[in-house]
Amino acid sequence: MLVPLAGYLIVDHYGKNVVHIPPYLIAERVDTIVKDGKTTYDTVYHQVKDFTLTNQLGEAVRLSDAKNRILVVDFFFTSCPTICPTLTQHLKRVQDAYEKNDTLIQIISITVDPTRDTVQMLKRYADRNNVDPKNWWLLTGDKKEIYDLARHEFFVNAVEGDGGPDDFIHTEKFVVIDKDRYIRGYYNGLDTNDISRMVNDIAVLHIAKDKKKPGLLKRLFSSKQ
C-alpha cells in the first residue's frame, strides 16, 4: 500500500511542474482579445454537447448524468467478431482498476449498430462481459444521432456520412473527456501500452482538476477529516 501512496504523494506535490498534463484537443476557433492596447489570442476548444441515449437497463441517460466524472468513450457493436471483444476486455480492466472508486470515471460504449443492438442485446452483452452499470453504460439510440456524435462531437471518424443504412463507423479509438467535457486524449484501445498511458492520464486529470484542492498530506491528516 505504501508504494502507490508514495507515488501519489510525489505526483500530488510536484505534479504542476513535472507531470505531463494531457492537453486540450480539437480547437474550434481563436478569439482576438484587445485590452489596454495589447492584442492577445485565446484558443477556444470543443466541448462535447449534452445528449440523451438509452443504456443497457433501458434507462434514458444524459451525458450530464455523469457530472464530475472523467469519461472514457468508445464505439462498438455487440456482433463485432474482430476488434470489439478486445476493446471491451480492455475497458473491463479499466473498470476493475476503479472498482473501489467507481464514481471517478464513467465508461460509455456507444453502439454503431443500434438497429440490432436493442436494449435486450446490450443487456445480454453486458452480463456476458461482467459490465457494471454503475459506471459503464452501453448505449443505443437513433443511428443518425449516434453517427453525428461520433463524427462531430467525439471526432473518431474523419469520413463524412449521412447515418443511413449503408453508413458505417468502426474504430479502435478510446476518447478521454474531462469533467468539463473537453476532449483530452485519443488512445488505441487495442494497444496495452496506450491503455496504460490512458489510465495514467486519467489519474493526472483527477489530480489536476482542482488547483485549489489542498495537498494529499493535508487532506489525510487534517483535523477536520
From TrEMBL:
Alphabetically ordered keywords of this record: Copper
Transmembrane segments: none
Superkingdom, natural source: Bacteria
Record flagged with keyword Hydrolase: no
Stored SUPFAM superfamilies: Thioredoxin-like
Domain Thioredoxin: from-to ranges: 42-204
UniProt keyword annotation of Cytoplasm present: no
Gene3D superfamilies: Glutaredoxin
InterPro entries named in the record: SCO1/SenC, Thioredoxin-like_sf, Thioredoxin_domain
Record-stated family: Belongs to the SCO1/2 family.
PANTHER family: ELECTRON TRANSPORT PROTIN SCO1/SENC FAMILY MEMBER, LINALOOL DEHYDRATASE_ISOMERASE DOMAIN-CONTAINING PROTEIN
Protein name: SCO family protein
Species: Chitinophaga alhagiae
